[in-house]
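Researcher: Please predict.
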Amino acid sequence: MKEKEFLKRAMDEIDDNPSSRIPQTVKNIKDNNDYMYDAHMHVFDKKCAAKNYFLLRLIEKLDEKKGVTDDIVEFIYEKEYDNEIDDLFRIMDFNSMDKVLDYYIENFAYQKKMIFVPLMVDLNSWIFKPKKSIHRQINELKRLMNNYAVLPFHSIDPVQSETKGLNNLYNLFIHAFTGHNKLFGVKLYPALGFLPSHPQLMPIYEVCQAKNIPVTTHCGGTIIRTNKKNIVLEGFQIINNEVVSYTDKLTEKGKERAQRLNNPALWEPVLKTFPKLKLNLGHFGGIDEWKKYPAQTNQDRIPKIQQLMNEYPNVYTDFSYNLSEQKIIKKFFDTISNNTLFEERTMFGTDYWMVLAARDYYKNQVNFIDQAANYNLKDTLLLNNPRKFLFNKVV
């Protein structure tokens, strides 16, 4: 589908009222006040991500300064990780999204009444290809909406524009946001090899702003990243207060690639073009950023997130995955309780199931929410801010 046809169909066929995308399962919970959101989590199964993806998540916390073999042995034998390793291997064997979500509800849900925001991840451009197409994943998420309180986010990647038929970038978007059950938002993972301002994505942001569709992007860890060589980055940059086209080569290697592509500063040309876009910079910059905060350099993400929030009224963030690092929790709450922008625009998310191999997931989730209550921020993070991000009409 060409850009012009896409824009016409999207503007004609997609409702601009977020309520039109809410399934009855969510409405049933929203009728009560005693509920919460997990604004950043995942339900994709082994057919959506190769087992190599799970294994990378398993070894993500290894100490790079140690010998790899010794560290893996120590990691496996450390008692506090026993349950998480078991959980991760169980999920690795699930072949449907409902089983992954059931496992969350049965073992990790903080309370009975929860609304989940499952974020898709398109790994087709990664070295390890999934077995389940994005079109099939959308259909499965639509079925999931019949029985679970979920507001799924559709995954976009400009590489989809090179595909013809059902799995074409624009065809997928139309399919995701039309029909009986409609997906609710959009998810991006730029570290897989593209700029957020890629020309093929700009029409999608135009639709998202016009139709009040929220967008969440990865702005955290570096373990999942492109391994391709000779990548040419296409997009836009701001020069003399003007948004102009931009082309560059991705010369960085390893983690530096992900650090570059996950930088929230890369969203500035998108936001300048679409200033009312609802954008969530997921993971609040990541654990490493919070470990060194408030020490700052020009490249630090947390000050940049604050700047974007200050300039654009619908920029949000979430603290997903970071709740696994107990040493930064107090710093986080001290920071946002003294920063009005952060307090009004930060959401709770777990990053299930990614977070399972990091620490004692359920224990740390409970500790985080208890701390939120101590700071008088529980309803703010778990209910009010997600509700604003998801449902507020901006145009």
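Model: The beta strands are 36-41, 114-118, 153-155, 185-188, 215-218, 232-239, 242-249, 279-282, 315-318, 346-347.
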